């Protein structure tokens, strides 16, 4: 992947990396698969990015979170993931509770081979909605995640619950 100047990989390059890696059986075979448990391995990522392969047992979900100002992409390597996201750009700092307007919720299903990129203000949650099928996905972030903010959602109200300094998802 070619970094663009000093600004790191573009969204298109991050997404291309996620797709290419999600289609690489040699990479996916390294992921430990433990029934009922999440699993993950880190990957070397181009252009100074950070990448992970994540295994999702049935019903696993991230909860609402952002990526601390990093942009990124992910692609489903097997199974299906459902993403809920907020279609407006939210400030990353300076608030604890926000009331969202109507019509800003988005939902998309990412079946095997599908992926998406997202910008630095992206707030979402991702779930493996299957009751029976494990899912595997590839995630890449630039710059490497400095932190993640976690939120609870109560109807329209988004509430910051904590800031994590270490990579979890
Ligand atoms: Fe995320």
Question: Describe it for me?
Answer:
By secondary structure, the chain is mainly beta. It has a single domain (11-168), classed as Jelly Rolls, CATH 2.60.120.10. Helices cover 9% and strands 41% of the residues. It has two helices and twelve strands. The longest helix is centred in the N-terminal third of the chain and has 12 residues, at 11-22. It starts with 10 loop residues before the first helix and ends in a 5-residue tail after the last strand. Mean pLDDT is 92; it is low at 1-5. Bound molecules: fe (ii) ion. Residues 62, 65, 67, 124, 169 line the site of fe (ii) ion. The site of fe (ii) ion has 5 residues, from loops.
Total beta strand runs? 12
> What would you say the CATH architecture is?
Sandwich
Structural class by secondary-structure content: mainly beta
Widest sheet: strand ordering: 1-2-10-4-8
Q: Give start-end ranges of low-pLDDT stretches.
A: 1-5
Give a short account of the largest sheet: 5 strands, antiparallel
Question: Summarize this, please?
Answer:
With 169 residues, the protein is mainly beta. It has helices at residues 11-22, 25-28, and strands spanning 39-43, 50-56, 64-65, 71-78, 80-86, 97-99, 105-111, 115-118, 124-127, 135-142, 148-154, 157-164. It has one domain (11-168): Jelly Rolls (Sandwich).
């Amino acid at each position: 992947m070619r970094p663009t100047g000093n600004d790191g990989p573009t969204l298109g390059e991050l997404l291309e990396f996620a797709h290419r890696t999600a289609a690489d059986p040699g990479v996916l075979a390294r992921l430990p698969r433990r029934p009922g448990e999440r699993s993950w391995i880190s990957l070397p990522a181009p252009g100074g990015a950070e990448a992970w392969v994540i295994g999702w047992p049935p019903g696993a979900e991230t909860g609402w979170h952002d990526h601390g100002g990093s942009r990124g992409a992910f692609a489903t390597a097997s199974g299906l993931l459902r993403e809920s996201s907020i279609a407006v750009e939210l400030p990353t700092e300076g608030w604890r509770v926000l009331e969202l307007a109507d019509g800003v919720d988005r939902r998309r299903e990412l079946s095997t081979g599908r992926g998406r990129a997202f910008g630095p203000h992206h707030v979402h949650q991702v779930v493996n909605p299957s009751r029976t099928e494990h899912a595997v996905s590839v995630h890449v972030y630039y710059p490497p995640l400095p932190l993640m903010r976690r939120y609870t959602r109560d109807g329209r109200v988004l509430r910051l619950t904590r800031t994590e300094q270490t990579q979890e998802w």
